[in-house]
Amino acid sequence: xxxxxxxxxxxxxxxxxxxxxxxxxxxxxxxxxxxxxxxxxxxxxxxxxxxxxxxxxxxxxxxxxxxxxxxxxxxxxxxxxxxxxxxxxxxxxxxxxxxxxxxxxxxxxxxxxxxxxxxxxxxxxxxxxxxxxxxxxxxxxxxxxxxxxxxxxxxxxxxxxxxxxxxxxxxxxxxxxxxxxxxxxxxxxxxxxxxxxxxxxxxxxxxxxxxxxxxxxxxxxxxxxxxxxxxxxxxxxxxxxxxxxxxxxxxxxxxxxxxxxxxxxxxxxxxxxxxxxxxxxxxxxxxxxxxxxxxxxxxxxxxxxxxxxxxxxxxxxxxxxxxxxxxxxxxxxxxxxxxxxxxxxxxxxxxxxxxxxxxxxxxxxxxxxxxxxxxxxxxxxxxxxxxxxxxxxxxxxxxxxxxxxxxxxxxxxxxxxxxxx
Length: 421
Ligand code: EPU
Hints:
This protein is of the alpha+beta class. It has helices at 24-34, 50-61, 99-108, 127-135, 166-176, 192-204, 235-248, 263-272, 307-317, 336-343, 373-385, 396-399, 405-411; strands at residues 4-9, 14-19, 41-44, 65-69, 73-77, 110-114, 139-143, 146-150, 158-160, 182-186, 207-209, 215-219, 228-230, 249-255, 275-278, 282-286, 297-298, 323-327, 347-351, 354-358, 367-369, 389-393, 415-420. Strands 21-22-1-23 form a 4-stranded mixed beta sheet, covered by helices on one side. The protein has a 4-stranded mixed beta sheet with strand order 2-14-16-15. Strand 4 and strand 5 (73-77) form a beta hairpin. The chain is globular. It starts with a strand and ends with a strand. The model has no long low-confidence stretch (mean pLDDT 96). The structure holds uridine-diphosphate-2(N-acetylglucosaminyl) butyric acid. The site of uridine-diphosphate-2(N-acetylglucosaminyl) butyric acid has 25 residues, from helix 1, helix 4, helix 5, helix 9 and helix 11.
């Protein structure tokens, strides 16, 4: 069967500036959150990625009007919406379909949905989401591959998250906005995307306090109305371009970022020997003359080092002197990119939950597979610095989360193109 692939001819040093798009992981929660309103919600800064297209299709299946305006505005009008079972194949295309669980439960007191999909990073249970819904008074049954979650009335309660899960925090917040009384989420996750979702809900009229700390309080309200919201910049896309610049550019400016969201990465890069000039909303990256130093990384919930960034950073560490150790505490099997990078000449030993990267290797072009979204990012960076041509397969993973990757890289001087093979 033929397939579209990305090809990259490596070795062309990049230069210039690149503008970061709106956050994917915020967008995929903001879109389901919008259905909690009784009127139209306008969201701007929406990235043009396939996850947004998939969520828009799911909204239309529910009778929600979705209008893409200008380049990056989306108007979501749930006025005519119906609570239909979400058991179609499209639900399995992405992880974030599970945000419809919290949103539909919150709005109608009932949701029927098949198991969401998304990148395979090892087991990704949703027990904490369900624990939260149950704490609010819902019952959960699993029948013929679908969850049925329903409640006569949702009533606020205390929910302790055994792991500070991003998805569970957002989902419980959405289920609780209309619940009677007060919901308290303890050991809540603190990722910036959660703050963005709470900001939207509060603009709609919700009463959510404490986001960004590990205790979030939600006082139920009777009505949420339409509003306008601008998405925060994508810190993972920004991190990808920053690492890419460190690997493949003489000098590059990354624009439309919030540096505070990237602190753990920026400190690590300085440790590795990358020169950074940090401004209010942009960063200039320069590759000095000195060799890069190896560094150890341990992934942790925000504000620790993000699991999504360890994959692209691994490619840079193949160019550092000495051995770097990456230890995964969030998704202990998130190392498929290491096997793909090895096909290009990287010397990486994976012993779960760590990868041992023996740096200072020359990478060369090979046929590789983007086994998940951030694996794809790590391979693109590898392709840019490798000798010869790299051919990346399964690029639909990359298209799920990086807006106009080819266009942005071409504008920086990369030789990147697509081919049907
Ligand atoms: N977990 C449970 N039970 C649950 C929920 C989570 O055990 O009910 C565990 C997970 O298995 C994992 C840890 O808790 O070990 C953290 O998972 P979390 O729920 O925080 O992850 P998520 O919400 O499913 C989001 C991002 C991921 C990112 C993680 C961690 C979205 C749509 N996805 O996933 O992003 O890696 O948080 O920060 O926001 C990506 O962008 O490439 C990506 C995979």
